[in-house]
Amino acid sequence: MIALVSVVVDVGIVALALGMLLVLYRMVKGPHLADRAIAGDVLAFLVVGVVILLAVDQRRSVSLDAALLVAIVGFAATVAFAQYLGGLTADVEPPEDEAVPL
Amino acid sequence: MTVLREVTTVVFLVSGLGFMLVGVCGIVRLPDAYHRLHASSKCSTLGLLGLLLGAAVHIGTPEAVMKAVVTLVFAFVATPVGAHVLAKSAHASGMRQWEGTLSDELAEDQDDAAA
Amino acid sequence: MSRRLVLNVGLAGIYLVWADERSWLGVLVGIAIGFVVISVYDLSTGLPVYAVRLFRLVRFGAYFLAVLVRANLQIAWEIVTPGFRQTPRILRYPVAHLTAVQKTVFANCITLTPGTLVVDVTPDGGLLYVHCMYAEDRATAITELRKLDERLQREVFS
After folding, report:
1. Does the model's ipTM exceed the 0.90 cut?
2. Any idea where the domains of chain C sit in the sequence?
């Protein structure tokens, strides 16, 4: 019974690795830059999944910090890529900042 | 009790993994970038939810649950926002849509504004 | 509502530190104490009872989780069946009646519900452009969005 979780973790890491290969295929093939950006986004989430599975395997919560970190870096990378992509053709003025009532 | 916990962990982990892999298949198979964003935003969020709940149940300490909750809140806020910025910039950079698209009111409005 | 929720959790945290509790029972007791304090305070504000609003929020959370699972199953079904049966459109949806934070929450909810994805928002924040996967009939898709909008206003923003 104890081995069940570790079996799931092993199979899961292999499955996520296969998923990464599929995402890399989309990243190489993607007809448009946006497709490659989406592939990068999903790749970051797959890495987060691997880190969480490692945390489950070690049974320590320290690795969950790494998961949050990878998620934040992936989000930042997505936003940066989108900025680059949006600036390629259209040059739009950002709207005025307003005070945000909570 | 421990058996129940094992089973809960396994159910959460397997469902999370399944949804993540569905998202990956969607990335490969769906026809244009908007459909791929549909797949990536929904499936990544739910997959991360399943994996984090599984980890929290398995580890079971208060720190682990707190970290899982923080990561979850971040994921639920950040994933849709990432999808928004990607969709907006894809549209702005003139990405061609799938030929089955029926209407594009954003492009119509932009043409009206330009005219 | 969001401030009261934060206050509820904050009071629980203060109780945990103050009473030197480090157990799950302590967390529950702290949340219960915060709940009672806020409920008593809200009796004087004339707003709906805190318990009712908290129940509505939790109910919306459950509904939202179910919708998220349904969205995933829909995508999965679309992937495993051969051929493409989508009828996508990009639609306008007016959101001028919401504040900035409510617009953000609404846009995130749209993206996580089945078949819809926010593409853009006008610079003045009056219109949301939504990519709908199944929008053969434009009016039906708009009605679906309006239902979510009304539900959010009733159960979360009240």
Report:
1. no
2. 2-42, 50-155
Cα distance between residue C150 and residue C64, in whole Å: 14
- Closest listed residue to residue A83, CA positions, set B40, C40, C127, B93: B93
Cα separation values, A75 from A51, B60, C6, C87, C140, Å: 16, 27, 25, 30, 33
In the structure encoding, which two tokens stand for residue C80, read together? 């495993």
Write down the domain spans for chain B: 2-95
How far, in Å, CA of C140 to CA of C134, rounded? 10
Give tens-digit pLDDT for A49-75. 999 999 998 888 888 999 999 999 999
Q: Are B40 and A41 in contact (CB under 8 A)?
A: yes
User: A58 vs chain C: nearest CA distance in angstroms?
Assistant: 23
- Please judge whether B93 and A15 are an interchain contact, meaning their C-beta atoms are less than 8 angstroms apart: no
Q: What DSSP string runs through C70-116?
A: HHHHHHHHHHHSSS---B-EEEEEE-TTS-HHHHHHHHHHHHHSTTE
Confidence at residue C50, expressed as pLDDT on a 0 to 100 scale? 79
For A64, the closest of B14, B23, B55 (CB atoms) is: B55
The span from the CA of C4 to the CA of C50, in Å, is: 9
Q: What is the pLDDT of residues B35-47, one digit of tens each?
A: 888 888 988 999 9
Cα angle vertex C147, ends C143, C152, to 5°? 150
Is the pLDDT at A21 greater than 90? The verdict is yes
Asked if C76 and B22 come within 8 Å (Cβ–Cβ), the reply is yes
